[in-house]
């Protein structure tokens, strides 16, 4: 995902000291997650400039598009992922990896971020993911 940062400014100006303080505090509070820095005017004691940092994220692949919507899948959720099996034919839950034909070396960790192949299949409608009840997940 491509991430950019750029600086922005907000001007706070008021006619009375009480209003100026209130407006400045509100501006700082509203921008609290954007690293606000206050610069006071040298000519007007009731004027200040608040500089802050805006962040912009641009998706570079289909997986990034889903991530911007708050959807993120792991390899374990992919139908191409095959867990390592025990001799009795059940998945070996002790292992944190499994087989994957799309992985560079044929193996991947269960909790790795899913590759674009999964997202492409989802977008094309070739697969659908379904939720797992908490009871089923524990088994």
What does this structure look like?
A hairpin with a 6-residue loop joins strand 2 and strand 3. Helices cover 25% and strands 26% of the residues. The mean pLDDT is 90. It has four helices and six strands, in the order E-H-E-E-H-E-E-E-H-H. The chain has helices spanning 17-30, 62-68, 116-124, 134-138, and strands at 2-13, 37-40, 47-58, 82-83, 97-99, 107-109.
Topology:
Layout: E1 2-13, H1 17-30, E2 37-40, E3 47-58, H2 62-68, E4 82-83, E5 97-99, E6 107-109, H3 116-124, H4 134-138
Structural class by SSE content? alpha+beta
Helix content: 25-40%
The gross shape turns out to be: rod-shaped
**N-to-C SSE string, H for helix and E for strand:** EHEEHEEEHH
Report the uncertain regions: none
């Amino acid at each position: 995902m491509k991430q950019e940062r750029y600086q922005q400014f907000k001007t706070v100006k008021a006619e009375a000291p009480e209003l100026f303080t209130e407006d400045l505090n509100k501006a700082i509070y509203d921008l609290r997650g954007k690293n606000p820095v206050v610069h006071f005017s040298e000519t007007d004691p009731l004027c200040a400039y608040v500089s802050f940092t805006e962040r912009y994220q641009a998706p570079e692949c289909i997986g990034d598009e889903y991530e911007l919507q708050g959807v993120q899948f792991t390899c374990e959720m992919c139908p191409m992922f095959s867990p390592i099996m025990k001799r009795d034919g059940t998945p070996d839950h002790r292992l944190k990896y499994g087989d994957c034909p799309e992985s560079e070396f044929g193996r991947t960790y269960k909790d790795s971020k899913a590759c674009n192949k999964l997202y492409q299949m989802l977008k094309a409608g070739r697969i659908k993911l379904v939720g797992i009840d908490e009871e089923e997940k524990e088994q």
